Amino acid sequence: MAALREELLAEFVTLLKAEGRRGVLGLNCARGSDGLHFVQCGIHFIGVDPSEENVHSARARGLDVAVAGPESLPFPNAAFASVWAADALAGLPPEQWAGVVREMERVAAPGAPIAVVLPEPDQGFTILRSPA
């Protein structure tokens, strides 16, 4: 599963660079491994995670991270050039997924790519686009 995640992350970074996008919001960023990858690729990363422990660990790695869950993001509308939501739906019941997706669309700039990794094993991810 780790190799698949790395492949998906690399594919999303390639898309961001091809579109000239220089920033990403990472939802449920955990201890910041994906965030570090974005930064190493030259993409500005801001993350959120509901766990204070994870946020503390990610900040110790030099990342800009805040405590927040994916269902209520503390950012203005259209604030981000892209959204990486590898774990945003994991652990949530399917009936909550649509609300989380709407919140991601709210904080994404018009037309921004939003990578949603599906919680089912080996399902990969889908790229949504924020409404223009």
Rg for CA atoms: 13 Å
Oligomer state of the chains in this structure: single chain
Shape: globular
Strand content: 15-25%
Main sheet: strands, sense, barrel: 6 strands, mixed
Which parts are unreliable, with pLDDT below 50 for 5 consecutive residues or more?
none
Instruction: Output the number of helix runs.
Output: 4
Task: Give the % helix.
Answer: 25-40%
Widest β-sheet, arrangement of strands = 3-2-1-4-5-6
How many DSSP E strands? 6
Query: What structural category do the secondary elements indicate?
Result: alpha/beta
H/E order of the elements?
Answer: HEHEHEEHEE
> N-to-C terminal Cα separation, in Å?
33 Å
Mean pLDDT, to the nearest integer, reads 89
Secondary structure elements and pairings:
Layout: H1 2-18, E1 23-27, H2 33-40, E2 44-49, H3 52-60, E3 64-67, E4 83-85, H4 94-107, E5 113-117, E6 125-129
Parallel strand pairs: 1-2, 1-4, 2-3, 4-5
Antiparallel strand pairs: 5-6
Question: How would you explain this protein's 3D organization?
Answer:
This protein has 132 residues and is of the alpha/beta class. The protein has 4 helices and 6 strands. It has helices spanning 2-18, 33-40, 52-60, 94-107; strands at residues 23-27, 44-49, 64-67, 83-85, 113-117, 125-129. Strands 3-2-1-4-5-6 form a 6-stranded mixed β-sheet, sandwiched between helices. Strand 2, helix 3 and strand 3 (64-67) form a beta-alpha-beta unit. It is globular, with a radius of gyration of 13 Å. It starts with a helix and ends with a strand.
